[in-house]
Model the fold of this input.
Amino acid sequence: MTSTKFDVLGVGNAIVDVLTHASDEFIAEQNEKYGMMKGAMTLIDTERAEQLYGDIGQATEMSGGSAANTIAIVAGLGAEAAFIGKVAEDQLGDVFAHDLKATGVHFSTPRLKNNHPTGRCFILVTPDAQRTMNTYLGAAAEFEAEDVQENVVSAAKVSYMEGYLFDKEAAKDGYRRVSEIARANGREVALSLSDPFCVERHREDFQDLVDHHVDIVFANEQEIMALYQTETFEEAQEIVRSKCKLVALTRGPKGSVIISGNQTIKIDAIEPSELKDTTGAGDAYAGGFLYGYTNGYDLKACGDLGSLLATEIISQMGPRTDKDLKNFVEGLKKAS
Done:
């Protein structure tokens, strides 16, 4: 077994977020014309991406991607972190790499050198702070098993994979390759289900991953119910208990539930001073949880730190923060 160089490795879509405010009327109009489902992630092509960019007006651009957001949180808390994902040899690819490395994350995936530009995700935030995402994957969708860096995966305590990348067949092979390398080296593998519609598109593949290739699952209430097609959260909770070693299920204002064997730990939600944008809440929760998990915290403390970070993120626009996240660790230690 190689020594661990990284606490957490993230594997997922390397994309740049384009954030803007939008009215419910705009979302409804876009849904009628183009199938833009409020609160969900919709995949779009190059032509639609260009059209939407013109329709949304003023916007803020920043590096994003679900797993990348989680890894930025992990690094910000003071852990050693790495990321594997695909960007192009273009300006947005430079921006993504610069932003991620600036947080202290190791990122050395070879750039894509064909006609696919770096991916981007249009995030429209409505007055109720709900986020509706339209994603042009671009270069991110070209991730495949050959991009999996064995020396990086084998050196990470936990490899964390986002479900969004599952929309391409080659990426599924890449995920299984990550799991093979990690487990061969005595490491753990975590998976985020990402989105209920994504789960519905790939239910059998996700079930196979959870049953045979993953040690830790992150999901929200809708995602876990979609995975097992249950009528209630409690039913899904009991099914996944028998499938996976460790499960963290978020429930928005209801808090979260951590499941490990016969143990069930309920974590209270922390009400934000102001709810501005739910983008990245689950990413931040996973980041806080995984930091705690790889640094020897008990499961309740892992969940508490996840909740603290999620609350911080939904109190602002965008999935990342410029604040010194190490203060959250100190605050948790003092509270406990």
Observations:
- The radius of gyration is 18 Å.
- The chain has one domain: 6-15+65-116+140-335.
